[in-house]
Amino acid sequence: MTNRLKQRLDEGSAAIGIQLRFGSPAIAEMAGLAGFDWLLLDAEHSPQTAPGIQTQLQAIGCTDSTAIVRLGRGDADQIRLYLDMGAMGIAVPFISTAEEARACADACRYPPRGTRGWGPHRAGGYGLHAERYTARIDDEVLFFPIIETATAIENIDAIMAVDGVDSCIVGPVDLCYSLGIPFQFDHPDFLSALDRVRDASNKAGKPSGLPLLGSVEDRANVDRQVVAGARLLLVGCDEPALGNAFTSMLEPLSHLQDQQRQRSE
User: Fold this and answer.
1) What pTM value is reported for the model?
2) How many angstroms separate the CA atoms of 223 and 235, rounded?
3) Which CATH number is 257's domain given?
4) Average pLDDT over residues 230-239
5) Residue 140 belongs to what domain range?
6) Which end of the chain is more exposed for a tag (fewer CB within 10 A), N or C?
């Protein structure tokens, strides 16, 4: 049982991830084979089901990538279910206080460290290596609060100091909304909020999950942000990736479509 994402974060390396919403095992497997360090299965903003999540976890299991499930809320029952299926980490949205963070972090670990109920399903090899899984998982599992409110920024030092919070993910759009500056990712208030997340993470001795600003094709720009502390990097999503790929395939042939439209008129 190896958590590639945890290894990379523990060694101080940047870990590159992508968010998956389509619920396709083939897409999940392809993303893992492509070399992403971690895959965020989004059950918050897309209609993913528990059986669908499990098929993606099985597909990702054929790769070296680490599967993290993004829930719709901080629900201990859902956390237990997806961990029992074999997820190696959980991300929960709209965590705004240390108490909320602690409840979710505890739900990811077995007693006495946490409150997770025992009964690993696929995670324990359907019973074939449940004892081995149980002995190791508390040290391998990851919990990431998603920081996306002004209140969370006010409480960020306490949130990042919680035992069991391994890093965080900043939700840039919702955070901007909460700060009253929708989609203004260059606004001083937003940049100041990112600085506070970075400082709190550094103070707690934990890697920070900051959004990469600017183009990922600008190597110097990316390197500056990584040197400044960004480690848990979420660099895309299957929806725009596939949309852009389809569009780029059609662009060189757009004149044929234009000719067809002209004939139709």
Assistant:
1) 0.93
2) 14
3) 3.20.20.60
4) 92
5) 4-264
6) C
Q: What percent of the chain lies above the pLDDT cut of 90?
A: 87
Q: Please report, as a single letter, which amino acid is at residue 94.
A: F
Question: 191-208, pLDDT tens digit by residue?
Answer: 999 999 999 999 999 999
Q: Which residues, including other chains, have CB under 8 Å from residue 245's CB and lie 6 or more apart?
A: none
Pick the closest to residue 155 from 193, 103, 107 (CA basis). Answer: 193
The number of folded domains in the chain is 1
* The residue to which tokens 């940047």 are assigned: 14
What pLDDT does 259 receive? 73
Chain segment 23-50, per-residue pLDDT in tens: 999 999 999 999 999 999 999 999 999 9
* H or E element, residue 245: helix 238-250
Q: Which of 45, 121, 129, 187 is catalytic?
A: 45
What does 154-212 look like in DSSP terms, one character per residue?
HTHHHHHTSTT----EE-HHHHHHHTT-TT-TT-HHHHHHHHHHHHHHHHHT--B-PPP
Token pair belonging to 237? 């999503």
Q: Is the peptide bond before 120 cis (omega within 30 degrees of 0)?
A: no
Query: What average pLDDT does the structure give for the chain?
Result: 94
